[in-house]
Amino acid sequence: MPYSKQDLIEFNHLRHLVLLYGDSKRPWTNEQLKYYAAHLGSDGKADDWFFDSFLFINPKSRSGRDYVADVNLGKSMSGEGDFFTVCSPNPADKGDWEELLQFYFGKEGALHALDNTIEDLSGSVAAPEHRRNVVLTLPYPHITQKRFGEIGHTGGDLNFSIETQNLSVATESRLKAEMWFIDRIMEMWEKAHLKNINLLGVYWIFETVYRSWEVDDHLLLKELRKHVNSRGLKFLWIPFYATYNFHLLEDYKKYYFDLAFLQPNFLFYKDGKDIETASAVARKCDAGIEMEYYLELDEPISIKNERHIRFREYLNAGVKYGYMTESVCAHFQGSDSLERMYSHGEPIERELYGDIYRFVKGDYKIKPYPPAPSRSNFVPRRRAVISLDLGGTNLRMAVVDDAGKIVHWRHGKTPASRQGILDTITDKVSEGIKLAESEGLKLTGIGMSTGGRVNFENGIIEDSTSLIPDWKNVRIKQALEERFNIPAVIDNDGNCSALAEKIFGKAKSVDNFIAIVLGTGIGGGIYVDGKLLRGRSNYTSEIGHITVDAGGPKCSCGGYGCVELYSSGSGLVRWAEEDSSLTTIVGTSGDRSTKAIAESARAGNADAVELLKRGGERLGAATAGLVNIFNPSMIIFSGSLVNVGNQYFDAFRETLFQRAMKPTSDSVEIVFSDFPQEVGIMGAAALAFQSSLQGSSYSMNIE
Ligand code: BMX
Ligand code: ZN
Q: What separation in Å is there between the alpha carbon of 605 and the centre of ligand 2?
């Protein structure tokens, strides 16, 4: 483990580094930072120092664009299954990076706040022996960023993608942006004159070292590290244990970083590695350990017990395997868990606050584990619903629990006939019920999201376009209730997507927004003044069927020139096939699918790029009209097309802002859903929970 007299001096006495996840919209204040800088006695007064080092991490810019990149694989403790994240479709640009610098260095910024906090505390506690360290996060240069912004006077925006240039040029540009960021940090640091803190280094936010045919972070990091070190800074990393390319930890000091902390990930994952193994790996690789803690509201009792046992193991293992005193430790604590633990209503959480403090001081003593949740203990049954999502291409079924977690997930192609669809639904629901019951989940409802015009009161699909053939006059609510004896509730997929965003997603605190689902067709849901727009018969928000070309071809809805014919998955394919000027778009197997179009565009095929631009443009024009009518503050995209390519969304944005009336469009934020593929499932689940909760005193358990 990387702790010797030498390291002590070289890293300015870094021992315990606390991770401070921030929200770009809310700067850190003295009031919050004091919980991390000092230990507070029961009277609320500081009686000692706490962490010696502070790492500031902001995942997103104020407008929601990503600084962070993440790859996670594994099963979480509540078992929602495997998941992973890829390069952001919504990457931060130079303006956002500048905003982050302001967040760090601005007058109200994190560093001034920390400096002042330490200054203030030095009144009640004798000044610390060494200056406290700060580490600043470098934003990740996403390869989805094609117009980062200009650096110097080079006459153009930096482009990080390999769509129109080769990998080494893209990597050079990414490196250039990072080097610029580091130089800006140094300039601002010089000017800031902060007395009580020491700028120790910078942090690489991606928890792996990534290389593929379109990304070369190996080269980037090797060069970047030289630059970081040349400015007198250290380069830090906290890799995810189950990470892709994890073996790189073995040689990390040789090539990439000056200091790494291994995340055991034991707290979050059901089948996570145990801490003994993780600490042995850290020791072997000369890395520190990351302590992992979080607090969740309203978690089920069994999970809470398990969390306490596991966190006790992090502390005890620090004594057993020596990392409490022989190593450096990073402390993950969600965004504000330590502050919340300090004033928590439950003694067990307050006790942990004290134990973490003792641990940081190096004199924590092993404590017994809290009792394991046993079968004989009373454990309330978690509630869950069966959720169905029927679209033009896919039929999905999931079991979703009352924390909004997908516990089981199945999906397949939408059968070609009405009977086929009904049979598959019956099969999948039966399967879901069995899975839920075998885990002791209490099923309270079935929710369904479907394309088509839905009679919401009676649960009847009254009409559909030919995207779902013969899907008319289907009494689905009645059929499900009779067959399974569980209350069922159905709504249009666009409406469901809007509900999903409102309850679980990006629109939790937004009252006026438009959700757009880009799939085989284009669906939509609109919230006005906090209410989902339903109209006379719940047939609202058929955004796909706004005419954008009065002389255009006939649409599956009976109209002509609808935007769905140009900008949806099926529309792009149709256009590619019918427009004789677009001849060169073909997939690897000679096909013309949406996937083939996306791949061709990524490979720089001019026809495919043109097609995406036209598609985005038409949708932008249609949406400009909606913006003028509904005055939303947010537009949220979901559906399988969110990854189709930036050309589409760039053209969308450009057209929208060009066409929509000026003051109206000024404040519209355009964002991507946190669950673009699961939006129908999440919406149907929210619908089922809402209706099963009506008249009951039980409340939904949403984080
Ligand atoms: C169609 C229409 C909409 C639906 C949209 C997106 C039917 C069957 N569908 O415009 O109701 O919201 O497609 O659906 O009438 P998806 O199939 O792309 O998910
Ligand atoms: Zn139409």
A: 29
Domain ranges, residue 690: 382-505+682-703
Residue 290: name the closest of 326, 328, 242 by CA: 328
Output the CA 678–ligand 1 centroid distance in Å. Answer: 16
User: Does one domain contain both 667 and 592?
Assistant: yes
Q: Note residues around ion ligand 2 (Cβ under 5 angstroms).
A: 545, 555, 557, 559, 562
**CA 461 to centroid of ligand 1, rounded, Å:** 12
Q: What was the pLDDT predicted at 376?
A: 39
Q: Are residues 466 and 337 in the same domain?
A: no
Distance, CA of 698 to chain centre: 28
Q: Are residues 22 and 122 in the same domain?
A: yes
Number of domains, the chain: 3
CA distances from 687 to 244, 386, 477, 503 (A): 37, 11, 13, 10
CA of 95 to the centre of ligand 1 (A): 37
With H, G, I as helix, E, B as strand and everything else as coil, classify residue 166.
coil
pLDDT, one tens digit per residue, over 515-561 is 999 999 999 999 999 999 999 999 999 999 999 999 999 999 999 99
Q: Which ligand is nearest to the CA of 568?
A: 1
Tokens of 631: 């005055």
Residue nearest to atom 9 of ligand 1 (CA): 451
Residue 5, pLDDT above cutoff 70 = no
Element (H, E) at 193: none
What does the pLDDT read at residue 465? 94
Tell me, yes or no, whether 495 and 587 share the same domain: no
CA of 465 to the centre of ligand 2 (A): 8
Q: What is the pLDDT of residues 20-67, one digit of tens each?
A: 999 898 899 999 999 999 999 988 899 999 999 999 999 999 988 999
Give residue 478's region: left, alpha or beta (phi > 0; psi -120 to 50).
alpha
Give the domain CATH number at 548: 3.30.420.40
- Per-residue model confidence as pLDDT tens digits over 395-414: 999 999 887 888 888 989 99
Residue 481: how many CA atoms within 13 Å on its side-chain side?
12
Neighbours of 149 (CB within 10 A): 16
- Same domain flag for 529 and 491: no
Angle between helices 606-630 and 569-578 (to 10 degrees): 130
Domain end marker among 332, 361, 390: 361
Tell me how far apart the alpha carbons of residues 476 and 460 are, in angstroms, rounded to a whole number. 6
Atom of ligand 1 nearest to the CA of 520: 18
Answer whether residue 369 is part of any domain.
no
Distance of CA 359 to the CA centre of its chain: 31
Please list the residues that pair with 554 across neighbouring strands.
560
- The answer to whether residues 479 and 532 belong to one domain is no
Per-residue confidence (pLDDT) for residue 587, from 0 to 100: 57
Instruction: Check which CATH number belongs to the domain holding 119 and give it.
Output: 3.20.20
Residues 399, 501: Cα–Cα separation, whole Å: 18
Residue owning the nearest CA to atom 3 of ligand 1: 451
DSSP 512-565: SEEEEEESSSEEEEEEETTEE--TTTS----GGG-BS-TT-PBPTTS-BSBTHH
**Considering every ligand atom, which ligand is closest to the CA of 521?**
1
Residue 697: count of CB within 10 angstroms of its CB: 5
Give the pocket of ligand 1 (CB within 6 Å): 391-392, 451-452, 464-465, 467-468, 471, 492-494, 517, 519-523, 542, 544, 564
Are 92 and 130 contained in the same domain?
A: yes
pLDDT band with cut points at 50, 70 and 90 for residue 697: very low
Whether residues 278 and 418 share a domain: the answer is no
